[in-house]
Write a structure and sequence with these properties.
single chain, Rossmann fold, 5-stranded parallel beta sheet, 7 helices
Length: 169
């Protein structure tokens, strides 16, 4: 049984956005990336330095709209890939519950990369500002997110046909 909604999970620099793009292309799925929404809608107006509470309030608004659109797409038979970070178990459980409430099958795709490699990738992305670059992530931001990170367990990512994507670059 294939999932209607795929949650792409990983900590900062894991390659979630790259993976989400590839997965959406492979499946002909609709993809939503929180970074793209936040940059387009809010970064130009963000306080400097960036304030966590200000940011999270806007992330919540984006996620509510993203889920509403994802639900409509899935109800019409279009699979959806969500690239929303899903740093914590509570965040993943919230979207699994929303999916279940909507009658959708939800799977976790866990992009599992060690922290030292993820930091190297972030530094490279900051310097190159390529296709998946949204904003500069400094070491403080990286370490802050690292402190929040709750990796999914095997039973969590393997349910509903989910996957663990290994550490090879």
């Amino acid at each position: 049984m294939s999932a209607d909604l795929m949650l792409v999970v990983g900590c900062t620099g894991a390659g979630k956005s790259t993976y989400a793009r590839s997965l959406a292309d492979e499946l002909g799925a609709l993809r939503f990336s929180i970074d793209e929404w936040m940059v387009a809608l809010f970064w130009a107006d963000s306080p400097q330095p960036i304030e966590f509470a200000w940011t999270m309030e806007r992330v919540g608004r984006c996620e509510a709209q993203i889920f509403a659109m994802a639900r409509q797409a899935a109800e019409r038979g279009v699979r959806v890939v969500l690239d929303l970070g899903f740093t914590t178990l509570a965040h993943r459980e919230k979207f699994r519950a929303l999916g279940a409430e909507a009658g959708l099958r939800v799977a976790v795709h866990f992009v599992d990369v060690p922290a030292d490699e993820r930091w190297r990738r972030v530094e490279r992305r900051n310097a190159q500002q390529g296709e998946t670059y949204s904003l500069t992530v400094d070491r403080g931001m990286f370490d802050f997110m690292e402190g929040l990170w709750e990796p999914p367990t095997e039973p969590e990512w393997s349910a509903q046909g989910g996957l663990r994507i290994g550490t090879e670059e």
